[in-house]
């Protein structure tokens, strides 16, 4: 049974520490060869990541980020909002093998089926009740309803989701062992792209009307 005196934020801190412990192959990114390598997001050439800013151009804002303090706007078709603290918004993470997301859910909101091709994900529920589930490459489905202080892990690359099943808003923080985990959001990846209708109708064994109806929800 969960000890109710343990703060969810303490658990989040533990997740971050575990991901930073220098165990071989735990991080999805290469080991650093210097104290830091703050990302130069304006560099004209990038090779599987970002080059380092000159040390003379590094400032304290590269190492501090307050974006996760703000509640996200959940007024969308999914009723959820992702606020990322990855290398694109937090350049000090460059080469450090870690990123964090804040996930806000409206009542009934969902973080829809998606995957992260470049990182494993672990998270902690801060508020509300959230159904967390993922599917393996063998089509085995694992899921559980989690409350504040409870933690989950999603292995790298597997399709997963989180859905708010509580009576009000929900909040979670998720941590990744990569500076830019990437996301393949299945609904938009499939139905807001240029995949031909005949591929989608044959894949899902539905007719054009169904595919066009789904595409219309995503402005495609």
From TrEMBL:
Asked if the record carries the keyword Cell cycle, the reply is: no
Q: One matching Pfam family, short form?
A: Cupin_1
Report the principal subcellular site: secreted
Q: Which residues bind oxalate?
A: 101, 111, 116, 121
Cellular component GO terms, alphabetical: apoplast; plasmodesma
- Listed as disulfide-bonded, the cysteine pairs are 37-52
Ranges for domain Cupin type-1 come to: 66-212
Example GO biological process? regulation of root development
Q: Which GO terms describe its molecular function?
A: manganese ion binding
Q: Which InterPro entries match?
A: Cupin_1, Germin, RmlC-like_jellyroll, RmlC_Cupin_sf
Region forming the signal peptide:
1-27
Location(s), subcellular:
Secreted, Extracellular space, Apoplast
Query: Membrane-spanning regions, if any?
Result: none
Q: Which Gene3D superfamilies match?
A: Jelly Rolls
Per UniProt, the keywords (alphabetical) are: Apoplast, Disulfide bond, Glycoprotein, Manganese, Metal-binding, Secreted, Signal
PANTHER family tied to this protein? GERMIN-LIKE PROTEIN SUBFAMILY 3 MEMBER 3 (PTHR31238)
Query: What is the designated name of this protein?
Result: Germin-like protein
Source organism of this protein record: Fagus sylvatica (Beechnut)
């Amino acid at each position: 049974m969960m000890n109710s005196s343990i703060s969810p934020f303490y658990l989040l801190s533990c997740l971050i520490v575990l991901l930073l412990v220098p165990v071989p192959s735990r991080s999805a990114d290469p080991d650093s060869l210097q104290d830091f390598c703050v990302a130069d997001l304006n560099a004209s050439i990038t090779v599987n990541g970002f080059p380092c800013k000159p040390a003379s151009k590094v400032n304290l804002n590269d190492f501090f980020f307050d974006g996760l303090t703000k509640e996200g706007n959940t007024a969308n078709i999914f009723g959820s909002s992702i606020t990322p603290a990855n290398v694109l918004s937090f350049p000090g993470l460059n080469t450090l093998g870690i990123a964090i997301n804040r996930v806000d859910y409206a009542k009934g909101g969902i973080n829809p089926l998606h995957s992260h091709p470049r990182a494993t994900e672990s998270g902690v529920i801060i508020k509300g009740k959230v159904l967390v589930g993922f599917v393996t490459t063998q089509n085995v489905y694992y899921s559980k309803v989690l409350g504040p202080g409870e933690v989950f892990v999603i292995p790298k690359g597997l399709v997963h989701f989180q859905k708010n099943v509580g009576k009000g808003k929900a909040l979670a923080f998720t941590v990744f062992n990569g500076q830019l985990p990437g996301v393949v959001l299945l609904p938009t990846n499939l139905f807001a792209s240029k995949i031909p209708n005949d591929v989608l109708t044959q894949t899902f064994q539905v007719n054009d009307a169904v595919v066009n109806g789904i595409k219309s929800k995503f402005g495609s």
